[in-house]
Amino acid sequence: MNETNIPLLQEHELPKADRIFRLAFGTFLGLQDPMKFSGNTNYMQRWYAYPKAAFAAEIDGQLVGLFSYQLTVISYQ
């Protein structure tokens, strides 16, 4: 049975999340090797700044996608 969950992304899932991220965007952009998308940039490092702003998409307990949003603080002084 395909059980779908959207929990917070966990630190131990970051390597797999990085692979999913590169494959998705590299494929979308038509790169010959999608895994080379964004070079040596580590977008998953952002998780450490806002771990509660990153969600995992899971099917039957397996990470199949991710979503994150950026928190922006605006200060008027």
Report what the structure shows.
With 77 residues, the protein is α+β, with helices and mostly antiparallel strands. Helix content is 19%, strand content 19%. The protein has 1 helix and 3 strands; from the N terminus they run βαββ. A 3-stranded antiparallel β-sheet has the order 1-2-3, covered by helices on one side. The longest helix is centred in the N-terminal third of the chain and has 15 residues, at 14-28. It starts with a strand and ends in a 9-residue tail after the last strand.
Observed structural traits:
single chain; 77 residues; alpha+beta; 3-stranded antiparallel sheet; 19% strand
Summarize the structure.
The chain has 77 residues and is of the alpha+beta class.
